[in-house]
Amino acid sequence: MCRVLCVSTSGYYGWKKRKTDKTKTSSEQRHDHLEDVVESAFYDVGGVSGYRPVYEALVQQGVECGSESVRIAMKTRGLRPNHKKRFVPRTTDSDHNHPIAENLLNRCFDAARPNMKWVSDITYIPLCRPVAVSVCDYRPVLTKSRRLVDRRQYADRAFT
Fold first, then answer.
1. Euclidean distance between CA atoms 119 and 16, whole angstroms
2. Average pLDDT over every residue of 3-11
3. Is the pTM of this model over 0.90?
């Protein structure tokens, strides 16, 4: 039979002696265990870190590993950090069906008397939590006392 298959007899008997049940070697088992530990550590640190913070977390847990083996294990499992994009406020959205207010000042900010013209500004404040905050600041262009007046305090009164 070895002549028909063009296989040496020693090769045939060596193949027959070997285990056929595909058991993993100890290094393969160790590598699989490391992949499991790396994956759990990756999600423990939030899933936004690269291999270095994961490696440091594993060292603090007492797991013996190298940073390169952590990097390779993360690559094998497809663990990539999810970096959050920086928030850039978009203040101009002209693609809508809402009415657009007229530009009554036309960049003419000179006023004949106080409380004739008011301007406002929207300020975006970045916070640690993802909360949208806008602060509206109403300021008169010209007042007699040269102090800022908050229009919202006097909402019940008519400004003339």
1. 89
2. 86
3. no
